[in-house]
Amino acid sequence: MTNLEKYNEAFTTTFEITEDQLANLKYQDIEAWDSVGHMSLIAALEDAFDIMMDTDDIIDLSSYEKGKEILSKADYGVEF
Amino acid sequence: MTFDEILSIPPYSLGREQKEKMLTERLVELTELHRRNCPEYAQMLDSINFDAASVHSYKELPFLPVRLFKELELKSVPHEEIVKTMTSSGTTGQAVSKIFLDRATSSNQQKTMVKIVSEFTGSSRMPMIIIDCPSVVKNRAMFSARGAGILGFSIFGAKKIYALDDDMKLDVAAVQEFLEKFKGQKILLFGFTFMIWQHFYKELLRLKDEGITFDLSGGVLIHGGGWKKLISEAVSHDEFHRRMKDACGLTHIHDYYGMVEQTGCIYMECECGHLHASVFSDVITRRPIDFSECEIGEKGIIQVVSAIPESYPGHSLLTEDEGVILGEDDCPCGRKGKYFKIDGRLKNAEIRGCSDTYAAKF
Fold first, then answer.
1. Shortest Cα distance, chain A CAs vs residue B69, angstroms
2. How far apart are CA B271 and CA B275, in angstroms?
3. Among chain A residues, CA nearest to B84
4. Quick one: pLDDT at residue B106?
5. Cβ–Cβ below 8 Å for A55 and B84
6. Which residues of B touch A46 (CB under 8 A)?
7. From the CA of A29, how many Å to the nearest CA of chain B?
8. A21-74: per-residue pLDDT in tens?
9. What is the pTM of this model?
10. Are residues A28 and B151, on separate chains, in Cβ contact within 8 Å?
11. How high is the ipTM of this complex?
C-alpha cells in the first residue's frame, strides 16, 4: 500500500467516510471529525506510519491537506 | 494583541509588571470585542456606564458571575460558527453552564493547555492511563467538563487506556498488561480526585491484601476537580500524597484548578504544592463586602481572567470559590506569576467540579 493509500485509509476508516469526501476536508466539517474523532485520527495515523507526533503538530493538523504537509516534515519523513 | 503572540511567551516567564501590561492590553481588547458582538454583554456594560478608556489595569475590568452562563446563552459569534458547546459538571437536576466555542477559541484552549502542562511533564508524549470510564467522552454533541478534561489531557497520551470500566470498576488485567508493556517508561496518569481515591486508590489497597501490587514510581499523576468529598473523609492534600505513595509508589503528583468557563487556562500545582497562574490567565482574590482586592495572604472570593475567550464573554469571571494568594513571582519552584491555594466553595454555593459532583452520589 502506498503512503497516500495508508493516509487516506486512516481518514476513511476513522470517520467512516468515502475517499471522494477527502479533498478539502477540514476539522469540524463533518460530525465524526470533532475533538474525539481527532484523537482517533491521530492514533490511526501514528499506527499506520509507526510515528509519534508532537503535540503542536496534533493541534495544527486541521485539514486533510494540512496533515499531508505535517507528515512530510523531516520529523516524520512520510513521502506522498 | 493577538492570542498567537501571547502563546509564544513561555508560561511562567513574566514578572508582575510585564504580565499586568500584557494582560491589560489583551483583556481590554476582549472586553471591547464582546461588547460589540454579544448584545447581552453590551447591555450589562452600558448599565454600569463602563468606559474602557478609563481602565489602567485588567483588575478594573468588570467580572461576570460564573452562574450567569447557566441562566443566559452568552455568545459573541454567529450560531453557525459554534463548533462545540461545553457544559459544566453539575449534580442531577442542577442547571449547567453552557459555553459556546468556535474553531479559534477551541483550538487556542488546547494549545494553551499543552503549553502549561508541558512545563510540568515535558513536551514529549507518554503512555497514558486515564482513571475514568470510556463512556464519559461518548456523548459528543454535548461535552461535559469531565469529558473535556479527559480529552484535553489525552493529547499527552501516546498510547492510552481507560483504567475503569463503565461500572467504574478497575480493570486490573488491562492495567497490569499496560504497565508490563511500557515498563521503564514514564507513564502519565490522569483523573479526577475523587474517582482516583474511590475507584483506584481503594482498589489498590484491596488488591495489596491479595498480593497484587502496581509499581507506578516512574509515573506522573495529574488530578483535579475538587477536594470536597476527600476533605469530608478527612483526607488532606498531604495525606493523599502519602497514601498514593504507599499504595503504588507514585510521588510525582500535580493537582490542578480550572473550570469549564475558562478551559485551557488551568492552574497547575508545582513541586512546592502551590497552584500557579500562567501568563495566559490570572487569579484575583476579592473581599466579599465590597469586592476590593485582597492582600497577599488574605482569604477572598476568586476572580479569574483568561486571555483566550473570543467566542463567549467569559474572559473575566467571579467564581464561587474562596482562596488565598500566597505570593507573586517568588515561589521557590522558580516559576513567576501568582501562586495560591483554594479554600473550598462559598457557603451556600452549588456543588460543582468533576470530582465533587460525582462524589455527591456517595
1. 23
2. 10
3. A34
4. 92
5. no
6. 158
7. 9
8. 999 999 989 989 988 899 999 999 999 999 999 998 999 999 999 999 999 998
9. 0.91
10. no
11. 0.84
A79 assigned to some structural domain: no
Contacts of B118 in chain A (CB under 8 A): 55
CATH code of residue A55: 1.10.1200.10
Of A28, A36, A53, the CB nearest to B151: A36
Cell 476508516, residue?
Answer: A13
Q: Does A52 touch chain B (CB under 8 A)?
A: yes
Number of domains composing chain A: 1
- Angstroms from B156 CA to nearest CA on chain A: 7
Task: Note whether residue A54 is domain-resident.
Answer: yes
What pLDDT is recorded for position B222?
97
Give all strands (DSSP E) within chain B, no chain letters.
Answer: 64-65, 82-87, 98-102, 126-131, 142-144, 157-162, 187-192, 219-224, 252-257, 267-269, 275-276, 281-286, 299-306, 316-328, 338-345
Helices B16-37 and B39-47, interaxial angle, to 10°? 110
Q: How far A28 CA sits from the closest chain B CA (Å)? A: 7
Task: Give the pLDDT of residue B226.
Answer: 84
Query: Is A80 contained in some domain?
Result: no
Grid coordinates belonging to B34: 464582546
In chain B the domains, ranked by start, together with CATH numbers, are: 3-359 (3.40.50.12780)
Closest chain B residue to the Cα of A50, Cα to Cα: B158
**What's the pLDDT score for residue B139?**
66
The pLDDT value recorded for residue B99 is 95
Q: What is the pLDDT of residue A34?
A: 87
Amino acid at B162: Y
| Count of CA atoms in the C-beta half-sphere (13 A) of B137 | 20
By residue range, what is the domain housing residue A61?
3-71
pLDDT averaged per 10 residues, chain B (length 362):
94 98 98 98 97 96 95 96 85 82 93 94 92 83 78 92 95 96 95 95 94 93 89 89 95 94 96 97 96 97 98 97 97 98 83 79 76
| Rounded CA separation B276/A59 (Å) | 24
- Tell me which amino acid residue A60 is: D
* Cell of residue B98, nine digits: 453552557
What is the per-residue pLDDT for B141?
Answer: 56
The Cβ-side half-sphere exposure at B310, using a 13 Å CA radius, reads: 17
- The reply to whether residue B155 touches residue A39, judged by beta carbons under 8 angstroms, is yes
Query: Max Cα separation, chain B?
Result: 68
Residue of B260, B246, B194 lying closest to B224 (CA atoms): B194
Q: Does the distance separating the beta carbons of A52 and B151 come in below 8 Å?
A: no
Neighbour tally for B192: CB within 10 Å: 27
